Amino acid sequence: MANIELDLPQLDVRDGVDRETIETVAAMGAYKYGWATDIEMDYAPKGLSEDIVRLISAKNGEPDWLLDWRLSAYRRWLGMEEPHWAMLTYPKIDYQDQYYYATPRSMAVKPKSLDEVDPKLLATYKKLGIPLKEQALLAGVEAPEGERRVAVDAVFDSVSVGTTFKAELAKAGVIFCSISEAVKEHPELVRKYLGSVVPPTDNFFATLNSAVFSDGSFVYIPPGTRCPMELSTYFRINAENTGQFERTLIICDRGAYVSYLEGCTAPKRDTHQLHAAVVELVILEDAEVKYSTVQNWYPGDEEGRGGIYNFVTKRADCREARAKVMWTQVETGSAITWKYPSCILRGDDSQGEFYSIAIANNAQQADTGTKMIHLGKRTKSRIVSKGISAGRAQNTYRGLVSMHPKATDSRNYTQCDSLLIGDQCGAHTVPYIEVKNTSSRVEHEATTSKVDEDQLFYCRSRGMSEEEAVALVVNGFCREVLQALPMEFAMEAQSLVAISLEGSVG
Amino acid sequence: MGAVSVKAEALASRLAGLALPAGMTAARETALARLSAMGLPGKRDEYWHYTDPAALNAVQAKPAALADTGAALFAGLDAVKLVFVDGVFDAATSDDLALSGVSLSRLATAPAGHWAQTAYGALESAGQSPIARPWAALNTAFASDGLLIHVTGKAAKPVSVIYLRRDDAADVVLHHVIKLDAGAEFTLLEQGPAAARLNHVIEVDLAQGARFHHIRAQGRDLGRHAVTHIFAHLGAEALFKSFTLTADGALTRNEAVITFAGPDAKAHVAGAAMGDGAFHHDDTVFVTHAAERCESRQVFKKVLKHGAVGVFQGKILVKKGAQKTDGYQISQALLLDDDSQFLAKPELEIYADDVKCSHGSTSGAIDDTALFYLRSRGVPLRAAQSLLILAFLADTIAEIEDETIAEDIGAQLEIWLARHES
């Protein structure tokens, strides 16, 4: 498979974006992150039992209340059935054939500073190239004056390996650390908010996560604080047969603001790997959270061997008046994607937005969308979903817009567009619309089409190869969502769109 | 207890004491076997997400007082008038079963070897996949009467069926089979209260180039519970058009299951529904494009007030290879007060790349700006509201080709609005 040579001057390079980064991303192969790092790992025994739950809790040095919380989730999970309503087909998952805890041996005692991190691990991050500048940051290198900085929490298999810029964030009163650390240092916050948006009883995968989550990120932005830099979590699954179950909890207190980025990769493996994460956002009065994801887990090979099974529960609770949340996701990876970032618009005048690009190529299957639950008066939501199917992939938008009787004068606008490349793939739209008051307006539009022949012909006549032309047209199709991403991610996402579609034409 | 055994139990009690009617024995028996395998729908069935089938599942039909049905529709139209009373064909008040270009007979009296022997239940059976429709299978098994219509040429005039009701608790199962030969043309009109509980199936098989028009008025019958299915199978270049007007009724579920089997065919389904108070109306449409260059259109509008509930579940399935498909779907609701609800699930499932498919769904109140404009021109509030409601529903009536019929339907809408002004 040939690498796409992106003609860089054609890309709209914004100020402050590192050209080298773009080149690096552009030069990536079909799946650049498909290597494994040979690091000595400590595994818990395979399979899931109360003992494993106790072991994970003990390894993290958790208090009793959290262990009890995990155990009650585990017991509940035993009685639950895996949901099969999504348009996804995959062989039965053997939950006993997974490792639920793996940690790099050098992490057995957590490093006090990044200098103590296993150099191999840092080399791993270096090799990844993205998130853009983090490997330098992870290594503790100061960014040049005036450049935008991003604080990073990196999670390697099950364990958080390091958080950058901690001191500077602390000056602003921002807490950004791994969730295991937060349990120790800020138990009052964790106890108050953990499970308050996604209760441990929520659904099969969220309940599993509640029982076995090993680590993840924790963010608290104090009242009236604008987080001085973008925060980022970087997840990587490295070990084979390991499930990754991270848990992210973000609390944005009154009048605060944070932009949060999340990136994911995994090595190429012939076996499927399980990923069941939970993300909870608590947004109080006048606060705003932007949550951006570039999900690039290993999608499996062209025949559908290997790849990540990605079952994720993400939910934002706009708990008080004028709270605002914006979910932006670029879903290019994973063999199976099951993910519906939701907004509970509880506070009056609160707002939820969802921007999504989902690309499924080869044998990938994606069933993704959002839920907008309007409970407060004058609440607003906007959904823009762009689904692209190529190869033999199946791509489904599934969403709910619900206007409760009390959510008067509320507003929703939904736009779902699907693009099909080739005649072997499928694009599906399954929206649920529930309107229970008269003063709210709900509009839903959906279209399905193929790549426009005239546009392709125009690009081809200007000397572009067919793949380049398709990539350009698809990028245009996704423009509304790409524009919603923070600058660093936007460029990366744009290139990912092209790379994900490699081999889909001709 | 598993969901399956609950369904089986519900079915067993529903069928207790019922015996298969005579005739079409093979088709009835296989339909009963199909039904037994699926059981009756329950609240947890995804396909019944927004409509509770309890009233349909109940052993006894809930009696429904007979409302004033008003004057018959399509009175000025030259048509063969056929009357059913409490689900049984009434020869005394009907015209003769004779029409040039058409062979007309009754299900209840069809002799052995009748042409419909092979057609009866065939499209219903095919329509059970990928989604089970137990009420249609029950209908095939237990239908007591219906029309068997074979159209061989261009029908000289429409057939107008009037369903009357004498019994407050009439529980009626009717099944029509319509077969159009290549190039044949036929129009079917239906109206009337029919039953306290009605289960109604029409199977329409259109050969190449056949044209079929269907206009149905589900009348003012406040307590009615009804589940209806239309199964249409379209050959190449065929045209299928169906319009349904629903005014009132406690529970109405209208399903249309349309399959394009040959290229270049067209199917348009439309519905206008108006409900005030205890009204639950569900339009469920499933269009399968299995051939190239076909066009499907779904236009459904609902006006809801005083706690009325409108449901729309529409699906366009484009199979692999059904290239150049043009699929369109619009569902809209006008909520006139805060108690009413609109619940919609407009679905697309597409496996071919060279297609043009879109759907839209909106819900909201009467546009204040438009209302203000009319008021500023001196139109009284009530009249302005009625005008805007009629304009909202006009798109569905535009789907009716015959102008006389469209005018009749429009007049019905106005009468309903006048009755339900407050």
Total strand segments of chain A: 24
Mean pLDDT of chain A: 80
Distance between the termini of chain B: 47 Å
Record the strand order, biggest sheet of chain A: 4-3-7-9-12-14-17-20-22-24
Task: Give the N-to-C terminal Cα separation of chain A.
Answer: 12 Å
**Beta-strand percentage of chain B?**
35-45%
Number of DSSP E strands of chain B: 19
Largest interface, and how many residues on either side? Answer: A-B, 36 and 37 residues
User: How would you describe the oligomerization state of the chains in this entry?
Assistant: heterodimer
Report on this model:
The complex is a heterodimer of chains A (506) and B (422). By secondary structure, chain A is an alpha/beta fold. Chain A is built from 13 helices and 24 strands. Among the domains of chain A are: 1-30 and 460-506, no CATH class; 37-124 and 131-139 and 149-293, no CATH class. The longest helix of chain A has 15 residues, at 64-78. Chain A has a ten-stranded mixed β-sheet with strand order 4-3-7-9-12-14-17-20-22-24. Chain A is globular. Chain B is of the alpha/beta class. Chain B has one domain (3-365). Chain B is 22% helix and 38% strand. Chain B contains nine helices and 19 strands. Chain B has helices spanning 3-15, 25-38, 54-57, 116-119, 122-126, 134-142, 368-376, 381-397, 403-419; strands at 80-85, 88-89, 102-106, 147-151, 159-164, 171-180, 185-191, 197-206, 211-218, 225-234, 239-247, 251-260, 266-276, 280-289, 295-305, 309-318, 326-335, 341-350, 356-364. In chain B, a hairpin with a 2-residue loop joins strand 1 and strand 2 (88-89). Chain B is globular and about 70 Å long. The chains are: A alpha/beta (506), B alpha/beta (422). Chains A and B meet through strand 22, strand 23 and strand 24 of A and strand 18 and strand 19 of B. Strand 23 of chain A pairs antiparallel with strand 18 of chain B.
